[in-house]
Design a protein that fits this description.
Length: about 350
């Protein structure tokens, strides 16, 4: 039973190899992969396949057999009052629970996906960080969140498509980089969900080796780096892993990434009153980013139970300084703040109840 693997973990070439090893031809691999990843079929027995493929499925997929599907069960859903943000709490096969958020904004729909159960990075203001780390997600568990969001969108808005994805849910994507990159390969494959790589963003707390790998591989995805501090002490107080990958090393790595890939980097900055919202900090940030093609995204702090800080009320001055220094600088839309709040907060509330 422990050897059961998920068909959702497989890219198309991998699935084709698995079937070929059992003598099933490429054409059938294509119909199975299309059913799983394009049509998001969750019960293979409801679907009609040609006999050779059906025989393979009957023999290999299901309880007590070597292969299974990933079909997380929705245990809760919360909608914002405007109905545009929907937060799903999904239960995985081992009973662990993760969050996935579907956001609609000006006719565009984005899914915010989790990469881990919990997070090991321990950022002090983050509900997920406050939970600690439980485990990594497999590629199939990451892709299954997108299938879930697509089904939900199809029910509510049959004419709309999910075209954007952000790895900004629970967990640190670059701490689980192999599974995340595999999942994104599956999700961006035109034969499946087909969300274009340029519509996918990976957000990292600053795992330097992960950013180096993205640069070396010329990763086609957008990169967002959560900075939150413009000096080592300021950042380390909020983001403990800054001790492992210090700010100067992180910025040097971002510089290299930008030069190598030619891509803009999005820097995220959670604004916390009295901690990282002063004009001097904004000026230091502008100096730090000089020469990088950077966009700064300001996020007002969502209060969490485990952290006493407050949202800043000087954000606009902070923004003005960055704009004057020539950096695009925007506030993250706080869609659904009335119900959903920050990533990890619904699960935290559920665990506590
Ligand atoms: N682990 C990744 C991605 C998930 S968090 C990362 O840290 O980048 C996505 C963004 O939400 C990060 O920029 C994070 O710092 C921010 N965030 C987390 N908790 C928050 C909170 N309570 N208020 C505001 N922003 C928060
Ligand atoms: Fe993990 Fe990101 Fe939360 Fe930090 S902000 S604890 S890296 S999920």
């Amino acid at each position: 039973m422990t050897d059961t693997r998920s068909l959702h973990d497989l890219s198309f070439p991998e699935l084709a190899d698995v079937l070929a090893a059992d003598g099933v031809i490429h054409h059938h691999a294509r119909s199975l992969w299309t059913a799983l990843q394009r049509h998001g079929v969750s019960h293979l027995h409801d679907h009609h396949f040609l006999p050779p493929l059906q025989r393979w499925i009957d023999k290999h997929v299901g309880p007590g057999r070597p292969w299974k599907l990933d079909q997380p069960e929705q245990v809760d859903e919360i909608r914002s009052t405007d109905g545009l943000t929907r937060k799903f709490l999904l239960k995985l096969d081992d009973g662990q629970v993760i969050e996935t958020v579907l956001m609609g904004y000006q006719g565009r729909h984005t899914v915010c996906v989790s990469s881990q159960v919990g997070c090991a990075m321990g950022c002090v203001f983050c509900a997920t960080g406050q939970m600690g780390f439980t485990r990594h997600l497999r590629p199939g568990e990451i892709a299954a969140q997108v299938h879930h969001a697509r089904r939900a969108l199809k029910q509510s808005h049959p004419d709309r498509h999910l075209r954007n994805l952000v790895m900004m849910g629970m967990g640190e994507p670059l701490h689980n980089i192999d599974s995340v990159l595999k999942a994104l390969e599956i999700i961006s494959d035109d034969r499946g969900i087909g969300i274009g790589p340029s519509k996918i963003a990976i957000s990292t707390v600053g795992v330097v080796p992960g950013i180096q790998r993205l640069a070396a591989e010329n990763s086609p995805y957008r990169l967002a780096v959560s900075l939150h501090g413009s000096r080592e002490e300021e950042r380390a107080a909020l983001v403990p892993v800054s001790k492992r990958w210090p700010l100067d090393e992180l910025i040097a790595t971002c510089r290299h990434y930008g030069a190598k890939t030619g891509k803009r980097i999005f820097f995220e900055w959670t604004l916390i009153a009295g901690e990282n919202d002063s004009p001097e900090t904004a000026r230091r940030l502008a100096a730090l980013l000089a020469g990088i093609d950077a966009h700064v995204n300001l996020i007002p702090l969502n209060p969490t139970n485990g952290y006493a800080g407050n949202a800043s009320d000087t954000g606009h001055e902070f923004q003005r300084i960055l704009l004057d220094a020539g950096f695009p600088c925007t506030f993250r839309q706080r869609r659904g703040i009335d119900v959903a709040a920050g990533c990890g907060m619904l699960k935290a509330a559920n665990d506590a109840s």
